Amino acid sequence: MSSVILIGSPNSGKSLLFNRLTGLSQKVANFPGITVDVGTGPLQALPDKTLIDFPGTYSLQAISAEEEVAVERFEQSLDDPDVERVLCIIDATRLEKSLLFTLQVIRDCERRGKEVFVLANMIDVLDSHGLELDVAGLSAALHTPVMPISARSGKGVDEVVAALSRAVAPGARREHLMHTPDEILRGEAHSLARRYGPQGDILVREQNRLDSFFLHSLTGGVSFFVIMYLLFQSIFTWSAPAMDAVEMSLGWMADAIVPNIGNPLLADFTADALFGGIGAFLVFVPQIFVLTFVIGLLEDSGYMARAALICHKPLRLFGLTGKSFIPLLSGTACAIPAIYAARAIDSPRKRLLTYMAIPLMPCSARLPVYTLLIAAFIPSSTALGGLLGWQGLAMFGIYFFGMLCGLLVTAFVSRTSDDHYNDLPFVLELPPYRLPGLVPIVRNAWNRSKHFVTKAGKIIFTLALVIWVLGYFPNYGADLSESWLGQIGQVVEPIFQPMGLDWRYGVAIFASFAAREVFVGTLGTIFGIEGADENMVPLVDHIQGSGLPLGSGLALLVFFAISLQCISTLAILAKESASRSLTLKMFFGYFVLAYVAAVAVFQVTSLVTS
């Protein structure tokens, strides 16, 4: 099977074109640092050809760790005899920025005898503004086919597929280009852009007008906090109908299925472990979808890079850079891709500090725990016509708390450790503002939610089975405190008593060190065994009826905000940082910090409310 390489600079629409050509749901984001691994997939129209998508890079002279991945893999692939062509995608609206990289790619492909097609993307943007790209002139100057396309609308994509279906045409090798240094190519790129690129500054003036608002010292900061607040408020308001629908469906299924199971043991397992444990977790999946969807809107619109620029100055106070904002916010969805995204940070020291902050970001695995506790202790009332909700405000607060803890940790480390690295200057491209493509964003949010369920579901099912067996025997659920689980709970209970928690919550916390979201499933199983004659799904009602004090609820929120309870994150951290010692120090350090902070919150709250 022959292969085709797809390569280009960040924000050129490369990943969107990859999705369109292969039908795969690779994430599309409008800032550098999100595509950090090589993606592959067969072309839909040409199944005998494999398309290889490399991380976006500005130059074949790598600076960041992400660019090193792209350049190294690209150079290796050019020596692969199965690779027959290279598709180099450029941004037609920013021609000079793309042409230097394009000339470097053409030069390296000439050295290996690989055919290159240059794809001038975003031609639809030029058309909508009455601007033109001299495709024929640019193609003649490059001695390489140039094809105008729109990865968003699909314009010109069929022509690309048709060109790929034809046999590779041997061309005359250009010896002068094969030995041209980058300094000469830079001047040639400037000359080509001036001669063949769109004439006019309409796009620049449009972007500057929006930037004058979103990057203004006053309106930019206000809009940033408003957008971030609406992001977390939407987690409750937008997902509430779907959560209610899931809860009602699970309740209906439990009422329909459990009474018809003849075997009492199997019936109890289905009710307690499946509907009580896994069902309690599934209720919160719509919030993960909403969170991923809203972040996708911000990414695809071009605002995320502006947010990184706004955050650069304050982040410097904590030893970080504006480029750290992108991995940190990505960490609110999942820490693992956030750690990968940190490769785009040029400075090794700031990259290391960003690694330390990412596990404290409130990831989607914490979201079911936060939602459960907030729903149990915070009233659902709203103000200002529903714009301001107390639960949404609490969610914003706990998210802000986690982020603040991460920043404080990096500030402490950056001021107390020796600086072994020379920092690089902060340089960030501001992509043009665009209307988000809803279809790929919805698809990505759906895939992220599905992946979360399948990944966490295996762990939750396994632990729910173990918890149910331990809690059900030897007395068949007659008295949970006398079960094997109850006996184990009595051992761990003294550890969590300073937080006002009994053995049930202690067991759930210990189980959650496999994955944070397991806390919800474990509690659901435990309360399902205790309340076998009640509705198995609404776990919030069980917690409210268990007599858990407000101080303990707040202590749990603080504990989960700080502790590092994800085996997968630890593994990726050790791999990316190349330091097992750092990973172990973070794991134990964050646990001790979480425990001390949670105990302090419980004690203070108890004094205030007594």
TrEMBL record:
Listed InterPro entries: Fe2_transport_prot_B_C, FeoB_GTPase, G_FEOB_dom, Gate_dom, GTP-bd, P-loop_NTPase
Membrane-crossing segments per the record: 213-232, 273-298, 352-378, 390-413, 456-474, 554-574, 586-608
Source taxon at top rank: Bacteria
GO MF assignments: ferrous iron transmembrane transporter activity; GTP binding
Any one GO CC term of the record: plasma membrane
Ranges of residues in domain FeoB-type G: 1-170
Protein keywords: Membrane, Transmembrane, Transmembrane helix
Protein name (record): Ferrous iron transport protein B
Organism, scientific name: Halioglobus maricola
